[in-house]
Design a protein that fits this description.
This protein has one domain (14-151). It contains three helices and three strands. The protein has helices spanning 11-57, 62-77, 136-151, and strands spanning 84-94, 97-106, 124-132. It is α+β, with helices and mostly antiparallel strands and 152 residues long. It has a three-stranded antiparallel beta sheet with strand order 1-2-3. Helix 1 packs antiparallel against helix 2. Strand 1 (84-94) and strand 2 form a beta hairpin. Helices cover 52% and strands 20% of the residues. 19% of the residues are buried. This is TadE-like protein.
Length: 152
């Protein structure tokens, strides 16, 4: 009777065949989690920048502010998202502030994850930012008044 590894030929191949799908799925989950965090961070930054620019754009014209914010968001978004698709940007002026909402689908290839998301719709990714409208000239005048009072 032989002892040793002669009877175990191919066991590493079988074990690797059982473990590799788990390893590949774990790596894919980590990669798509990083894509989600990246896209969410980028959308938050884009929404904030667009709201800030929109609040400075119109000098009182609400439609011009909202259009400026929306156009800036669309321009900023170009070629910056990794897995987000069909992102819609809405901008409006309400209660003395510009509000920008970026809402889209987070695309996960369902062929890779069969059965889990095949019947369901894709997860949503959303960013919403609000920036108050400031009058820069009035702010500068107020600062100068305060400085003048402090000097006296």
């Amino acid at each position: 009777m032989k002892t040793g590894t002669a009877g175990m030929k191919g066991s590493c191949t079988v074990e690797a065949a059982m473990i590799m799908p788990v390893v590949i799925a774990a790596v894919a989950i980590v990669i798509y989690s990083a894509f989600y965090l990246h896209d969410r961070t980028v959308l938050n930054g884009i929404a904030y920048k667009a709201a800030l620019r929109g609040s400075q754009a119109g000098e009182g014209d609400k439609d011009l502010m909202a259009a400026g914010a929306r156009n800036m968001a669309v321009e900023f978004m170009e070629h910056r998202l990794l897995a987000a698709r069909n992102v819609k940007v809405t901008a409006r002026v309400e209660e003395g502030a510009v509000k920008v909402v970026c809402d889209g689908e987070f695309h996960i290839p369902t062929g890779m994850i069969t059965g889990i998301l095949s019947e369901k719709e894709m997860p949503r990714i959303r960013a919403e930012k609000r920036v108050e409208i400031r009058e820069p000239t009035a702010f500068i005048r107020d600062c100068r008044k305060i400085m003048k009072l402090a000097d006296e």
